């Protein structure tokens, strides 16, 4: 454990419930080894990863391209930089196995994932985020300002000029209606009905909302993080159920980040999408303060631990409730109570700092695999790898 992380641990120990380093959060349950099924080395650092449910195809977005990787590790590359300057920062969306949608600068690219071909591109004046889908309508966030409801006939309804970068959440209500929820850089969480571009409700947080919303375990609440360092639970009318204060929010309020410049890589913001364990509604949150939080459905804390870097990418929940989180040099596997189940360190960094992007999973022959991309800090054009992992027997 480095001196920096030890100091940070000591500084925050009283602020959270039994917070410790994540690699030391071992409980009474067994720790597993991680098997690397295969690794594909890329020419660039991946920024986002998606996978087909049969595991036969992995899709990775980088600063300049989209990689289509077969199960033999051989990849095809779509160099979309030939038609625009492309930077992919959000997870590609594979819709019904038929279309792969990738948001980038000035274009939303739609690929045929089976033939590796570009099928269509939606153009706009600014960076396009990853859309949500309502029947045959795309709900597309635009960083230059606006939320677009784009029908298959090309009709485009424009909602407000607020800057949006989070992926919208689409919820089907009990009456069979659709509600779209998304966060804006103005600090509000917006609620839309159907394809009506006029929001019917909004909730004010204390900072920009770049975190993509997630549906709560009850199916009637929305979970969304903010740059104010809080996770907010809202009902579908935009009213607050509860807010959870992270260590980062406490440090921001107390001026800790400004007074301790050695912690410059840590911050108060929440940018990852929370995950929910289906069996009991436990909420898993990664935060810019470097912590992974496990919360009860009412927002009270079960446990938390300190990773070795900010947790900006989304946690992934496996079928058995195992939670997978990438941060700093490591990919962590947790039991649902937050104790460590397994740990994977990218051996291909050769001692350099690497970062994992949001893990995704698939099941083949009853065995679940996890796909994670890793790359280099501050060197996005020269290194990258896609790893397919699975858990081995307990030690």
Protein architecture, described:
The chain has 395 residues and is mainly beta. The protein contains three helices and 33 strands. It has helices spanning 3-12, 247-254, 256-259; strands spanning 20-21, 32-42, 48-51, 57-61, 66-70, 75-78, 93-95, 99-112, 117-127, 132-134, 137-141, 147-151, 156-159, 169-172, 178-183, 188-193, 201-204, 214-215, 221-225, 230-235, 240-245, 275-276, 283-286, 291-295, 301-306, 316-317, 323-327, 330-334, 340-345, 354-356, 360-364, 367-376, 384-394. Strand 28 (330-334) and strand 29 form a beta hairpin. The radius of gyration is 20 Å and the shape is globular.
Keywords:
395 residues; mainly beta; Thrombin, subunit H; 5-stranded mixed β-sheet; 5-stranded antiparallel β-sheet; 3 helices; 6% helix; globular
């Amino acid at each position: 454990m480095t001196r920096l992380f030890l100091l940070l641990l000591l500084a925050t120990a009283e602020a959270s419930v039994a917070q410790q380093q994540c690699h030391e959060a071992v409980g009474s349950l067994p720790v597993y080894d991680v098997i690397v099924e295969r690794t594909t080395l890329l020419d660039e650092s991946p920024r986002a990863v998606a996978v087909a449910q049969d595991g036969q195809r992995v899709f990775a977005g980088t600063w300049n391209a989209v990689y289509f990787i077969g199960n033999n590790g051989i990849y095809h590359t779509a160099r979309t930089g030939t038609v625009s300057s492309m930077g992919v920062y959000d997870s590609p969306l594979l819709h019904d196995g038929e279309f792969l949608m990738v948001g980038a600068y000035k274009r939303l690219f739609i690929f045929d994932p089976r033939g590796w071909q570009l099928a269509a591109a939606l153009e706009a004046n600014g960076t396009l985020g990853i859309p949500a889908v309502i029947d045959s309508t795309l709900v597309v966030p635009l960083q230059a300002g606006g939320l677009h409801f784009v029908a298959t006939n090309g009709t485009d309804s424009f909602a407000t000029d607020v800057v949006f970068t989070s992926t919208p959440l689409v919820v089907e209500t009990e009456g069979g209606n659709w509600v779209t929820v998304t966060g804006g850089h103005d600090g509000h969480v917006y609620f839309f009905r159907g394809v009506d571009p006029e929001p019917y409700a909004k909730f004010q947080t204390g900072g920009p909302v770049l975190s993509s919303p997630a549906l709560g375990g009850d199916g009637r609440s929305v979970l969304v993080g903010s740059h104010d360092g809080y996770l907010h639970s809202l009902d579908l009318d935009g009213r607050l159920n509860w807010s959870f204060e992270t260590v980062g929010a406490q440090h921001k309020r107390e001026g800790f980040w400004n007074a301790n410049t050695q912690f410059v890589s840590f911050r108060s913001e929440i940018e990852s999408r929370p995950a929910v364990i289906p069996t009991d509604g436990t909420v898993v949150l990664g935060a810019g303060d470097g912590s992974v939080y496990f919360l009860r459905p009412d927002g009270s804390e079960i446990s938390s631990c300190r990773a070795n870097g900010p947790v900006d990418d989304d946690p992934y929940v496996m079928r058995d409730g195992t939670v997978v989180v990438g941060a700093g040099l490591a990919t962590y596997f947790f039991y649902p109570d937050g104790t460590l189940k397994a740990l994977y360190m990218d051996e291909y960094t050769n001692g350099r700092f690497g970062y994992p992007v949001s893990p995704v999973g698939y099941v083949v022959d009853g065995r679940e695999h996890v796909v994670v991309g890793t790359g280099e800090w501050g060197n996005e054009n020269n290194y990258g790898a896609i790893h397919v992992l699975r858990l081995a027997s307990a030690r």
